[in-house]
Amino acid sequence: MTQPSKTPRRQSLVASTTLAACLSGMVFVGQVQAQAAPWPAKPIKIVVAFPPGGLTDAYARNYGDYLSTRLGVPVIIENKPGAGAIIGIDAVAKSPADGYTFGMSTSGTYWQNRILYSKLPYNLDKDLTPVTVFPSGPLVVGIPDKIPAKNMAEFVAWAKKNPTSMGTYAPGSYPHMVADQTNRQQGTSIQSVHYRGEAPMWLDVASGQLQIAVGSFQAFNTVATRGVRAIGVTGSYRSPKLPDVPTLTEQGNTEKLVTLEGGLPLVAPAGTPEAVLKRMADEAVAWSNTERAAKLRETFAIPNKPKNLADTRKDWEAEVPVWIKLAVDLGIKLD
């Protein structure tokens, strides 16, 4: 029996269905190809929330050079200082979560800004995610040679009788908190003077415009032969470069703040692919075992290394609440 021929309408329906199926298949294939697209396929940018010359910038450039050779694409370091690191952090928070933009700043500006400022243009918990934390090691407490103090207790006694200013590398930074806590507990009136990074801060200590500052060993060391000396270091252990300088804890300071060691978190926009986050953290760990990384740690007197993504997240969950509570307890507001 002869099959009836397809009507024009039926032919049109079949053709439309076939075309739709083909188009759907093409879209699916395109999506799979897009998902499988190799990363990275273009330059990676690391936004540093401080100017060149400090520890954050040094870490970013050293790690960035290594990363470029490993991934085969340029790694661009973009310095965006200002507003207590908010400008740089916000630039990262508002970037696409595609694995091509990362940010570096100090732990205090990431963790405590939410307390120090009433309103931020970003939400740390929702807009950013940690990758790894580059340790900063013990920070150096330095004063001009002209001030007759050999330790922190003697400096506090001197500060009670003389106008005193402490340099900080950003509003709300670790030294800013040290100054505020010292005022509250010791009855001093130390004024915090904020800088965009460490280099200009230490120069003003050397010139006598500042009476005290707290910062990285490498930045301090640039003025160590220009009339600035160390009277203590922060953290739970002495600086490898200043073995004769006792920690503030050894000097009798029992406050939790002076025992904590901050760091320099590498973060990414929330939603960045997990595989990318893990690769970036793994490369940071691998970089930390290179000769060049070892030289950087020696220069800045940093004995410890960054951790992988899983361990970084564990530390983040455990340490961030401690830093936030310190900010709450001190009651500092910057706006």
Strand content: 15-25%
Count of DSSP E strands? 10
Measured as a percent range, the helix fraction is 40-55%
How much is the radius of gyration in Å? 26 Å
Instruction: Give the number of helices.
Output: 14
* Spatial arrangement of strands, main beta sheet: 2-1-3-10-4
How far apart are the termini?
A: 89 Å
Q: H/E order of the elements? A: HEHEHEHHHEEHEHEHEHEHEHHH
Low-pLDDT runs of 5+ residues are: 1-6, 27-34
SS content category: alpha/beta
Mean pLDDT: 88
- Main beta sheet: strand number and arrangement? 5 strands, mixed
Rough outline: globular
Structure, explained:
This protein is an alpha/beta fold. The chain is 45% helix and 16% strand. It has 14 helices and ten strands. The strands form two sheets. Strands 2-1-3-10-4 form a five-stranded mixed β-sheet, with helices on both faces. The chain has a five-stranded mixed β-sheet with strand order 7-6-8-5-9. Strand 6 (165-168), helix 8 and strand 7 (191-194) form a beta-alpha-beta unit. Helix 2 (55-71) packs across helix 12 (274-288) and helix 2 packs antiparallel against helix 13. It is globular and about 65 Å long. The termini are far apart.
